[in-house]
Specification:
Largest sheet: 6 strands, mixed
Mean pLDDT: 88
Number of helices: 11
Number of strands: 17
C-alpha cells in the first residue's frame, strides 16, 4: 500500500484503505512504539492523540550483546533477545500505565528499523506523452507496483536475504507539466514526474519482530518503517528545516547520511562506523571494558577527568574520531558526484555521545563539500531538543529516537 505524501506531512493519505484512522469516535489510543537499532532495541508505550501531542508513559532500551568481532548470526539473535527483554519489561509496566490512562492495552504497533536491518531507495519516475492524459490513481498505482517489483529484484534488496519484503511505499512528490501538485488526480498533463521512496527488509527479520511482539502484545495493527524516512519526516515537519538539509544518524555499528532536497528525501548512504566502533578502539587502548570506555568519554565531555587522563583519552578520541571522519568524508565525496550538499546538518546519536559526534561534523575540513563552501550549521537531535514534540508522564524516560518515532506515529494517525 503506497502513501502519497505531498510536501506537508499533515496532507498524508492512502488510496486504498486507511490504516491510520481510529476506530469509531475515539480521539486517543494506546500504542506500542518499537525502535530496532544496530546496537540496542528501544520500546515505549504512548497515548496517541488526534487533537494534540502524544504522551509517552514509559520507555525501555535494552542493549544488544557487545561483540568484539561482529558475527551476523549472533547479531540477529542478540536483536531478538533484546527485543524480547524490552517487551517483557513493558508487559510488567503496562498495568500501571492502564491505571493512568483508563484505557485498553495497545491496539497498534509502530516499528522502526535502523540500518543495517533495512535497505531503502528513492526513485524518480518521469513520463512524457505526445498528447495530454488525465492523471488517475490507477496510473499512480501502476507506477508504484512496477517500481516495487523492480526494487525487490535489485542487488541492494537482495543483500538482506532471499525474501525481501517491502515495508514502505511513499510517494513524496507528484509534478504535472513540471509543476508540483498536492491534488494531481483528474488533472490533464503531458508530463508526469513522481518521487517515490521505497523501503525493504528481510522477511526473516520481519517475522522475528512480529512473532516476538505477538508473544507479549496481541495488537494486530502493525506499521513498519525505516529510520531515515522517520527522521526526514520529523525534521522537515517539526523543526522548521530548510528545503535542503542533511541528516546524519550515528548508530551503534553504522552511520547513515541522508540528503534532503526540495523537501524530498533524495538518497541515503551508509558506512560501517558507529558508536561501538569508537568504544572498541577505546577499550583496547585503555585495556578496559566498553562500558568503562563509554564512562571515560562522558567524563571527558563533562571536563571531569584529571589532566593526565584527559591527555591520554583526548589523543585516543582524536585517533578514533579520524576513522569516523574519514568514512564520513568518503560518503560526502560520493554524494557530491550526484548532488550538491546543503550546509544545514541535523545529527542524531545516543545522548551520551551526541556532543562528541557533533564536534566532529563541525570541523572546517567539511566546508569544501557544501554548496556554499561553508562549515556545516549543525543541529543536534538530542532528547532535550526534541522533547517539545511529545508530553511525558513524570516517570517516563526521554529517549531521542523513541520521541521522534512517537511523534511520527502520532502524525500518521491524525492525517
Amino acid at each position: 500500500m503506497y502513501r502519497y505524501i505531498p510536501r506537508f506531512f499533515r496532507a498524508w493519505y492512502t488510496s486504498r484503505m486507511s490504516i491510520l484512522s481510529f476506530g469509531g469516535k475515539e480521539k486517543k489510543e494506546l500504542a506500542l512504539i518499537i525502535d530496532i537499532g544496530s546496537a540496542s532495541v528501544g520500546a515505549a508505550i504512548a497515548v496517541l492523540s488526534r487533537e494534540g501531542k502524544p504522551t509517552i508513559f514509559t520507555t525501555i532500551r535494552e542493549d544488544m550483546v557487545f561483540q568484539e568481532d561482529l558475527d551476523i548470526a549472533r547479531f540477529r539473535t542478540s536483536m531478538r533477545d533484546a527485543l524480547a527483554k524490552a517487551l517483557r519489561t513493558l508487559e510488567r509496566l503496562l498495568p500501571d500505565v492502564l491505571k493512568k490512562t483508563g484505557g485498553s492495552p495497545p491496539s497498534r504497533v509502530y516499528v522502526t528499523f535502523s540500518s543495517p536491518w533495512h535497505a531503502s531507495e528513492t526513485r524518480t519516475i518521469s513520463s512524457v506523452q505526445d498528447k495530454p492524459f488525465r492523471m488517475t490513481e490507477e496510473i499512480l498505482n501502476r507506477i508504484v507496483r512496477r517500481e516495487v517489483n523492480s526494487f525487490t529484484r535489485t542487488e541492494l534488496a537482495a543483500r538482506l536475504g532471499e525474501d525481501p519484503s517491502i515495508i514502505e511505499e511513499h510517494v513524496m512528490r507528484i509534478a504535472l507539466n513540471g509543476y508540483e501538485t498536492r491534488e494531481p488526480f483528474g488533472k490533464e498533463a503531458k508530463t508526469l514526474d513522481v518521487g517515490l521512496f521505497l523501503g525493504v527488509i528481510s522477511r526473516a527479520i520481519l517475522d522475528d519482530v512480529t512473532n516476538e511482539t505477538r508473544r507479549v502484545f496481541s495488537a494486530e495493527n502493525k506499521s513498519f518503517h525505516s529510520f531515515p524516512f522517520v527522521a526526514f519526516a520529523v525534521v522537515r515537519d517539526f523543526l522548521g528545516a530548510p528545503e535542503k538539509f542533511l541528516i546524519v544518524d550515528v548508530g551503534g555499528e553504522v552511520t547513515d547520511v541522508s540528503v534532503v532536497s526540495d523537501h524530498i528525501l533524495s538518497e541515503t548512504t551508509t558506512f560501517p562506523v558507529g558508536k561501538r566502533t569508537l568504544l572498541r578502539a577505546l577499550s583496547r587502548a585503555f585495556s578496559t571494558t566498553p562500558d568503562e570506555a563509554l564512562s571515560l568519554v562522558r567524563l571527558s565531555s563533562e571536563k571531569r577527568l584529571s589532566e593526565t587522563t584527559e591527555g591520554r583519552i583526548g589523543k585516543s578520541l582524536s585517533d578514533v574520531g579520524s576513522v569516523w571522519v574519514s568514512a564520513f568524508e568518503k560518503a560526502l565525496s560520493g554524494i557530491t558526484t550526484r548532488t550538491a550538499i546543503p550546509s544545514s546538518l541535523f545529527i542524531s546519536a545516543d545522548d551520551d555521545l551526541l556532543p562528541y559526534f557533533e564536534a566532529l561534523v563541525k570541523r572546517e575540513s567539511f566546508a569544501q563539500y557544501t554548496v556554499t563552501d561553508e562549515m556545516f550549521s549543525v543541529f543536534p537531535l538530542s532528547s532535550a531538543a526534541l522533547s517539545g514534540m511529545c508530553q511525558f508522564d513524570r516517570t517516563s524516560g526521554r529517549d531521542p529516537f523513541l520521541i521522534m518515532e512517537t511523534a511520527f506515529a502520532n502524525k500518521m494517525q491524525t492525517a
